Amino acid sequence: MKKLFQIPVALASMERKWLVPLIASSFISITLFLAATVSLGASSQRTRVWGFLTSDSDASRATYVEDYLVQPPPPSMPAPPRLGYVIQGTKGDGLRLRRVLQALYHPRNHYVLHLDLEAPARERVELARSIRTDPTLSEVGNVHVVGKANLVTYRGPTMVAATLHAAAILIKQKADFDWFINLSASDYPLITQDDLLHVLSYLPRDLNFIEHTSNIGWKEFQRAKPIIVDPGLYMNKKSDIFWATQRRPVPTAFRLFTGSAWFALTRAFVEYTVVGWDNLPRIMLMYYTNFVSSPEGYFHTLICNAPEFRNTTVNHDLHYIAWDNPPKQHPLTLTMTQLGNMTTSGAAFARKFPRDDPVLDKIDEEYLGRAPDRFTPGGWCLGPTEDGQDPCAVRGDINVLKPGPGAKRFESLILRLLSPSRFRKYQCVIS
Asked: What is the CA radius of gyration of the chain?
């Protein structure tokens, strides 16, 4: 055994000056080999982690170990999304539209305000003037008042046409938005825009929030089979829809869906409805022209019959709405007594509110931190608050968000909606 560990005679007789360099070079070679092995192992881990974010062509160019070591760190927070709003009202809603706008306003977003044709021109001009003379709104330039108003008939397809009109305006203006949200003058936010944008920052931008069901029940006989005509399509004065004596069968070329008239739709789906590279959006629009309460069916049926979008739906409209039991035609009017239920719902919006009801002041004070006739403060507001000064008079970085308690409430709702036990289960289900 001792012979195995004896140093060869040739090595022992080697000159002493070569011994130290030999041992040193061997040590350095082993060290470099081990370092390269560890680096390659670590870089292969990075390659697997970052492979979701880089293309195959990028990975193929990373030939050397150093190429893996210079990979950028993951971002600490995703970029906030941008929202496109349409807020619609009728005669006497000019001041209400402005109040909803102030409660919802954020410089990152885009807003279309529509007072329908029943509102006098003077009211529409006054609304546009208030937007134009506001220093922040005029400087940012992200609020558009529809000048050529549409006549909107209750339960008729003209509401769908007005909503598509607003979406087309945003697309034509090349407005950058990730979700398109429709509201009315009787809606109001329950959380700040910083709360909403913060939570939405962590969601995929292809989720469409729209309450829907294929179990249309009594609506088959009272809405789908009757044939109606909306005078708002061809008259200058508003009047109720009128009914044809003939009835029609339920479609067999597509499945009918119905649900809430309020939603938050992705830009991709909005462009699909407006541009219509497939013919399905036009077919649906023609069919729902004679459908009772078409705002509660057009977008729902379209999205659930479009293969590229049916798996993107989240079955909720992000609203708190109270109904009678059994539900009647209109929801209950919200007052201070429902404030607790609004809070626990986690919803971003609620409706319907009476005009200038004290519950709106309470929401401003406790949920939004908003003073009368001012914007809801957010991370973009850098001004002082002493002596009643408006913090939003000084505008800072619009990408900075300061979420509050509302973000937690809204996050809880989103987590419930996207839970594995619910998300796919309620997605465009054919019953």
From this structure: 30
